[in-house]
Amino acid sequence: MMLKGVTSVEIQKSQPKKPDITKTTGYQSAMTDIEAGRVYHAENAEDMFRQILG
């Protein structure tokens, strides 16, 4: 709908600021696990289950 006397209207949507993931507890916990060597590697899902279940 047009308003009398209004020639144009511009709408600006502000972009939400992305949080710094390096400050999250999960990220810090993961980095601690990596530094302590609590990281395992598997070739695929089958290999992962073989490592877990033996």
Would you mind describing this structure in some detail?
This protein is an all-alpha fold. Helix content is 39%, strand content 0%. The chain is built from two helices and no strands. The protein has helices at 25-36, 45-53. The longest helix is centred in the middle third of the chain and has 12 residues, at 25-36. It is elongated, with a radius of gyration of 25 Å.
Characteristic terms for this protein:
single chain; elongated; 0% strand; mainly alpha
Which structural class should the secondary elements be placed in?
mainly alpha
How far do the termini sit from each other? 69 Å
The main sheet comes to: none
Number of strands: 0
Principal-axis shape: elongated
What is the mean predicted local confidence, pLDDT? 90
What share of residues are in beta strands?
Answer: under 5%
SSE string: HH
**Radius of gyration (Å):** 25 Å
- Proportion of residues in helical segments: 25-40%
User: What's the total helix number?
Assistant: 2
Low-confidence stretches: none
Write the layout of secondary structure elements.
Blueprint: H1 25-36, H2 45-53
Task: Provide a concise account of the structure shown.
With 54 residues, this protein is mainly alpha-helical.
